[in-house]
Amino acid sequence: MNLVFTLLIIAATVSIFLAAFAWTRRPSESATPFALLMIAIALWTTGVLFGLSAPDLATKLVWAKFVFLGIATVPVALLLFVLEYTGQQKWITARNVILLALEPLLILILAWTNEAHGLIYANTRLVLVNDFPMVEATFGAFAWVHTVYSYALVLVSTLLLIWNFFRLPGIYKSQAAILLLGISAPWISNIISVAELSPIPRLDLTPLAFTLAGVMFAWGLFRFRLLDLVPVARDRVIETMSDGLIVLDARDRVVDVNPPIVNVIGLPTQKIIGRPVEQVFERWRDLVNAFRDVSSTQTQVAIGDGATRQLLDLRISPLLDARGHILGRAIIVRDISDRAKAENELHRAKESAEAANRAKTGFLTSVGHELRAPLRTITGYSDTLLAEAAEQGLKTFPGYLEQISQAGRHLLAIADHILNLSKIESGTMPLTLRVFDFAGVLRDTARAVQPLAERNNNRLTLQCGENIGGMYADKEKIRFTLNSLLDNACRFTRQGQITINAARAMREGGEWYTVSVSDTGTGMTPAQLARVFDPFTQADTSITREYGTTGLSLAISRRYCAMLGGALDAMSEPGKGSTFTMQLPVRVNDQ
Which of 112, 247, 402, 591 has its CA 20 to 30 A from that of 357? Predict the structure, then answer.
C-alpha cells in the first residue's frame, strides 16, 4: 500500500501544479477549462488518499463524499476543455453549461445526503484487502445514472479528439495524437477495473488515470504546440488567409499549407504535408533553390511567362523555439500581379497626363506669343486712327474705333494671362523680390480701380491697420492680384459696397498680411465657388458676355499667392456677395 499512497500523493501534487500552471496561461485558449479539470482531479485524488488513510468506516464515508466534488466535476470539465480545444466554442454557452452542471449538482446533493435515501450507496461495509481496511459498497440507482452520464461525456470528448486528429494537417497531428493518448488512460483504467485485473482490488484507479491524462494534455498544449497556438486558433488565422502560407521544418519539409497554396499546387493536402519542399514545388525548383538557405527576407519574384506571368510578394520569416533555435520557416506569398498592373497603368496615365500638360503649356505659350504681336498692331493703329478722327472732327468713326481699341486691349490682356499661366505651370515664372511700401500699393490699386467701381455706382472703401507698412515680396505680382480681386468685385456688383480690409499680425512664427476684398454683389453657389479659381472657368457662359471676364486672372492670382508662400481663398453666398482673402508673409523667403 505504500506504493499506492506514493502514487496518490504524486498524482495530487502534479494535478495541483498543472492547475496552477494552466491558470497562469489562461489568456491562451483551452487553459481555463484545463485548469478546472486539473482542480477536479486534484480534489478526487486527495479525497481517495485521505479516505484510504482513514481508520474507520464513518471517516472513510466522509472522505467519499468529498471525492464526489471531483467525480461529479471531471466529466463536465473534460468536455468543456475538448470543446474549446477543437474549436467548438459555439456550444459553450451559459445555457449549455448550466444544463451540463445540473446532473453533477444533483449527484453532489444526493452523495452528501445519502444516509437519508441510499440513492448513491445502498450498503457499505469495511473489508480487509491484503490486511488493509477498505470500503465495499453496493451502488444505488443514481450512482449508475452518474456512471452512464460520465461515460457519455467522456465518450463525446474522445470522439471529438479523434475527429480533430483526422482533420488537422502536419505538426498538429502530433499534438492531437498526444491528447488522444492522454484520454485513452481513463478508458484503459476502466477496462482493467471491469476485467478485475487491478493488482489492488476495490481500489479506484480512475483518478490516477485522469492525472496521467492531464499530464499528456499539458505536454501537448503547453510544451509541444507550434507557435503557442492550439489548432482552432490555427484554423481561424491560417485557413481564412487570402495570402498563401507554407510552413517548413528545419529539414525543409512541408509541415503546413493553407488553401491558397493547395489550389496553386493542385494536390490534396495529405500528399503535400511531410514531403520535401523541392518535390512539392517541382515546377518552381529554381525559385526553391534560390531561397533554400534564406531564413528571413521580403522581396518580389515573378513566375510564369506571357499571359500566365504572376508577380508575387514573397516574405520568409524564421520560426524559433523558446531558446531561439530555428524550428523552420514560414513563407507568405501574396499575388500582387493586379496591383502591379494597376500601378503600371497609373504610371502610364501619369506620364500621359504630364505629356498632355506639357503639350497644353507649349500650345498656350505659342498662342500667347502669336497673338500679342498682331493685337499690339491692332490696338496701336486703332489708337492712331482714333486720334486722327478726333483731329478731323469726324463723328461716326470714333465710336467704332474705340470699340476696336477696347476689344484689342482685352484680347491682349488675355494673351498676357495665357503666357503667365503657361510660365507658372511650366515652373519658369520668375520672382522679383524687393522691399516696397505695401500700404502705398493698396492705395494706388484702389485709386486705379475707382473709375470701374463708380461705373456701376459702387462705393469703394479702403480700411488699413496702423501697422501696415513695408513688405519684401514681388511687388508686381501682388499688384496684379489686388487688381484682379478688385476688378472682379467691381464687375459683379451693382450699386453696392466694395471694401478692402488689410491687417498685419503675428502668425506661425512670423508676420503676415491679411487682405480681404468683400463685395455685396451677386455672390456664388457652392458649385460655382468650388470652380472659381479654375482657369477658363465661369459660373455659366453668360458671365463672359455680360461681365467681360474669362476666369484667368483669379486662377493666376491664386498661383501667385502660392509662389509667394501664401494663399488665396474665397467665401460666397448667392445674393449676398463674396469675400476673397489673401494671406501673405511680410517677408517672402528667397527661393
Answer: 591
* Cα distance between residue 360 and residue 122, in whole Å: 105
At residue 565, the 3 state secondary structure works out as coil
8 A C-beta contact, residue 564 and residue 588: yes
Residues of the chain with CATH 3.30.565.10: 434-585
Determine the Cα–Cα distance for residues 30 and 80; give it in Å rounded to an integer: 8
| Residue extent(s) of CATH 1.20.1070.10 domains in the chain | 2-233
| Full-model pTM | 0.45
Question: To 10 degrees, the CA torsion angle through 305, 310, 313, 314?
Answer: -60
pLDDT digits (tens, 9 = 90+) for 442-491: 999 999 999 989 998 999 999 987 778 889 999 999 999 999 899 989 98
**pLDDT tens for each residue of 173-183:** 677 787 888 88
Side-by-side strand order, sheet with 244-249: 254-257, 244-249, 326-335, 310-320, 297-303
CATH topology of domain 241-335: Beta-Lactamase (3.30.450)
The answer to whether 516 touches 579, Cβ cutoff 8 Å, is yes
Residue 512 β-bridge partners: 505, 585
State the DSSP code for 197. -
The kind and range of the H/E element at 95 are: helix 94-112
- Which CATH number does 434-585 carry? 3.30.565.10
C-alpha to C-alpha distance for 51 and 63, rounded to whole angstroms? 5
Helices (H) and strands (E) in the chain, counts: 19, 14
- The whole-angstrom separation of Cα 227 and Cα 131 is 53
Torsion angle of C-alpha atoms 77, 81, 82, 83, degrees rounded to 10: 100
Closest by CA position to 534, among listed 556, 519, 517: 556
